[in-house]
Specification:
The complex is a heterodimer of chains A (113) and B (113). Chain A is mostly beta strands and 113 residues long. Chain A is built from no helices and 11 strands. In chain A, strands 2, 4, 5, 6, 9, 10 and 11 form a 7-stranded mixed β-sheet that branches. A 4-stranded antiparallel β-sheet of chain A has the order 1-3-8-7, with no helix packed on it. The N and C termini of chain A lie far apart (36 Å). The relative contact order of chain A is 0.33. Chain B is an all-beta fold. The termini of chain B are far apart. Chain B has no helices and 12 strands. Chain B is globular and about 40 Å long. Classes of the chains: A mainly beta (113), B mainly beta (113).
């Protein structure tokens, strides 16, 4: 099992550019989520999904879109990157929902100039 | 409002000392789950423990132990006889109905040889 994979590992964008962070899991988990980690802020939930076709907003959703067309994949889209979106992004998955431990991907370090 | 507070930003201990990491949470939910995760210098997030709101039993796993007290809304983590490999950032997290997770800002632990 590869677990949770994320691509790319590093990315530099210019303000206004768009991009998609990829996330995939091979554990047949229903719940998937995206977080951003900023110094002194811990991890903050951006969007989450409880199954294919179902997504919802977390604590800091503005500027990000998600979709969940398959159980395995949960891409995060930045529509028009801003310097405030410079962060480390983690994708996670868990068996079902808020009562299960999450398995995290290795993270994507994004810099927006 | 849901919130997790880890008041200790950084802690340094000498190897073999015991150390306790504090976690205080806020929620009005009666059903919730608490978690601890470890983030070593390599950056990945590793699940350590999960506890539900109905189970106040303390738990010991090797050198690790956890003390959950609903009366004080705390879920503290103690490492006994600390080792250099324990050096990491430790996050406490709260999972609530609605499938949202809230992380604390983390405690950076440095174990000095």
């Amino acid at each position: 099992n590869a677990g949770v994979t994320q691509t790319p590992k590093f990315q530099v964008l210019k303000t206004g550019q768009s991009m998609t962070l990829q996330c995939a899991q091979d554990m047949n988990h229903e719940y998937m989520s995206w977080y951003r980690q900023d110094p002194g802020m811990g991890l903050r939930l951006i969007h989450y999904s409880v199954g294919a076709g179902i997504t919802d907003q977390g604590e800091v959703p503005n500027g990000y879109n998600v979709s969940r067309s398959t159980t395995e994949d949960f891409p995060l889209r930045l529509l028009s990157a801003a310097p405030s979106q410079t962060s480390v992004y983690f994708c996670a998955s868990s068996y079902s929902s808020f009562y299960n431990e999450q398995f995290f991907g290795p993270g994507t370090r994004l810099t927006v100039l | 409002a849901q919130k997790v507070t880890q008041a200790q930003t950084e802690i340094s201990v000498v190897e073999k000392e015991d150390v306790t990491l504090d976690c205080v949470y806020e929620t009005r939910d009666t059903t919730y789950y608490l978690f601890w995760y470890k983030q070593p210098p390599s950056g990945e997030l590793v699940f350590l423990i999960r506890r539900n709101s109905f189970d106040e039993q303390n738990e010991i796993s090797g050198r690790y132990s956890w003390n959950f007290q609903k009366s004080t809304s705390s879920f503290n983590f103690t490492i006994t006889a600390s080792q250099v490999v324990d050096s990491a950032v430790y996050f406490c997290a709260l999972g609530v109905t609605g499938n949202q997770f809230y992380f604390g800002t983390g405690t950076s632990l440095t174990v000095i040889p």
